[in-house]
Specification:
The chain is mainly alpha-helical. It is built from three helices and no strands. The chain is elongated.
Length: 85
């Protein structure tokens, strides 16, 4: 599953603007219209901000670290498909 940062940013921005418009109920119609128009005109979200990071250097397995006494044997309880020892 990949994340599209542009679509995610747009979705977050739209939800936030919808939140602002529905949270603050202004009784004066002119002021309410101005408030909603101002929200639509301004960008409240900057980004997306992306960061390219190099992959981590591969080292020992969890099993090796447990066997060497570096990690507690309790880490064995974490053994799953997503985090194999």
């Amino acid at each position: 599953m990949s994340l599209n940062p542009l679509k995610a940013t747009q979705s977050i921005s739209q939800r936030y603007m919808r939140y602002l418009k529905t949270t603050f109920q202004i009784s004066d119609p002119d002021l309410a219209a101005l408030f909603k128009a101002t929200i639509d005109e301004h960008m409240f979200v900057k980004g997306p901000i992306l960061e390219a990071t190099p992959p981590f250097r591969k080292g020992c397995t969890l099993r090796h670290l447990i066997d060497e006494g570096i990690l507690s044997p309790r880490f064995e309880s974490l053994n799953q498909d997503l985090l194999p020892l």
